[in-house]
């Protein structure tokens, strides 16, 4: 099977590419050439948002499937439809499970859960992109499949709330130094974190799957943990027995750090449990097998073995310190006021 990946070198997509090659797919990666392409895969160097350059680069070539990790805005989706119409039997758009209703009316998320996120423009843009591409699929312009990952991480990442995405060792460093780390809410809300190698099994299984055209899927682990458990398992992997976990209400966090509104109120502040029945029905044998304890152990082990992965984000540290200080000052003030009353 001949497959084009747009992107293909990121945290999630690189695992998908590796598995696809292992299964014998003929792969081509289209990106700006800033990261090395795996041996055995072809490379097309172009900026996907420059239509004329991409048309020249791909010529009349056609693919059995196109997997696109790089669409975030409706206008970008419209351009992809224009670009790949007639060039593939299946276009797989990587959307986001953050597009689901927040807060959801039912704790169990299925593909039928409404796409309504009033807190996060990113999620609303992804939902609008889904509408556009599925309409193109129904009209026959571009046969498409929508895939929604949730919080998915690779073996060099630490996917904790309020961590630095670019320098994910930051919170591990704080734990090891005995510094406080922030857990949203009371730490008892439920969440699902998926290792990218598990996500890849579902995605690669959908490529070339004719029955999946016109359908939507989320692909996540079946393991459900509280945020406290997630932080404690991370601490254990880092060799920290008693991390200083500070529980702060999400609305307080957002009041202090407004840029966190989408990722908290629009995503991780509420319990979310995914029903993976649909992906299992379309990809027989699909099963997420990497527990968070195992996956985070790999991540921290890789960081300990490679100094380049142990960069610390000063701005993230400053935000956490200021947030914890504001919370503790407010708590002390409240206690004082009520003690006097």
Explained architecture:
- This protein is of the alpha/beta class.
- The chain is 41% helix and 16% strand.
- The chain is built from twelve helices and 15 strands.
- It has a seven-stranded parallel sheet, with helices on both faces. Strands 6-15 form a two-stranded parallel ribbon.
- The protein is globular and about 75 Å long.
- The protein starts with a strand and ends with a helix.
Topology of helices and strands:
Blueprint: E1 2-6, H1 13-22, E2 26-31, E3 42-45, H2 51-58, E4 65-68, H3 74-84, E5 91-94, E6 108-109, H4 121-138, E7 144-149, E8 152-153, H5 169-176, E9 181-184, E10 190-191, E11 194-195, H6 196-206, E12 216-219, E13 225-226, H7 227-237, E14 245-248, H8 250-256, H9 261-268, E15 273-274, H10 277-282, H11 292-305, H12 314-340
Helix pairs in contact: 1-6, 3-4, 7-11
Summarize the structure.
With 341 residues, this protein is α/β, with parallel strands linked by helices. The chain has twelve helices and 15 strands. It has a seven-stranded parallel β-sheet with strand order 3-2-1-4-5-7-12, sandwiched between helices. A two-stranded parallel ribbon has the order 6-15. It has a two-stranded parallel sheet with strand order 8-11.
Descriptors:
alpha/beta; 7-stranded parallel beta sheet; 341 residues
Radius of gyration, taken over Cα atoms and rounded to an integer in Å: 21 Å
Tally of alpha and pi helices: 12
| Integer average pLDDT | 95
Strand order, largest beta sheet: 3-2-1-4-5-7-12
Helix % is 40-55%
The secondary-structure element order is EHEEHEHEEHEEHEEEHEEHEHHEHHH
Number of strands: 15
Please state the overall shape, judged from the principal axes of the Cα atoms. Answer: globular
The chain-level structural class is alpha/beta
The largest sheet is: 7 strands, parallel
Beta-strand portion reads: 15-25%
Distance between the termini: 73 Å
């Amino acid at each position: 099977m001949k497959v084009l990946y747009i992107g293909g070198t990121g945290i999630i997509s690189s695992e998908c590419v590796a598995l696809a090659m292992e299964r014998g797919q003929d792969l081509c990666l289209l990106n700006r050439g800033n990261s090395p392409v795996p041996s055995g895969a072809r490379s097309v160097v172009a900026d996907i948002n420059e239509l004329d350059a991409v048309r020249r680069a791909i010529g009349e070539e056609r693919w059995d499937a196109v997997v696109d990790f790089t669409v975030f805005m409706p206008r970008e989706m419209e351009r992809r439809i224009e670009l790949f119409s007639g060039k593939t039997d299946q276009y797989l758009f990587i959307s986001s499970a953050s597009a689901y209703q927040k807060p959801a009316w039912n704790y169990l998320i299925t593909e039928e859960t409404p796409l309504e996120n009033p807190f996060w423009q990113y999620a609303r843009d992804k939902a609008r992109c889904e509408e556009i591409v599925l309409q193109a699929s129904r009209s026959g312009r571009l046969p498409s499949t929508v895939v929604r990952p949730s919080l998915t991480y690779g073996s060099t990442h630490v996917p904790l709330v309020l961590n630095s995405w670019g320098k994910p060792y930051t919170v591990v460093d704080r734990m090891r130094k005995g510094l406080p780390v922030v857990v949203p809410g009371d730490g008892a809300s439920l969440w699902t974190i998926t290792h990218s190698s598990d996500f890849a099994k579902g995605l690669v299984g959908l490529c070339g799957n004719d029955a999946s055209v016109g359908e939507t899927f989320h692909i996540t682990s079946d393991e459900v943990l509280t945020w406290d458990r997630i932080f404690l398992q991370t601490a254990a992997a880092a060799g920290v027995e008693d991390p200083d976990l500070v529980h702060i209400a999400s609305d307080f966090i957002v009041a202090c750090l407004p840029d966190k509104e989408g990722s908290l109120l629009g995503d991780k502040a509420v319990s979310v449990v995914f029903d993976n029945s649909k992906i299992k029905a379309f990809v027989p044998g699909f099963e997420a097998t990497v527990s968070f304890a195992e996956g985070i152990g790999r991540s921290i082990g890789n960081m300990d073995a490679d100094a380049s992965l142990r960069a610390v984000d000063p701005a993230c540290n400053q935000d956490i310190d200021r947030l914890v200080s504001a919370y503790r000052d407010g708590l002390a003030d409240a206690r004082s006021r009520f003690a006097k009353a």
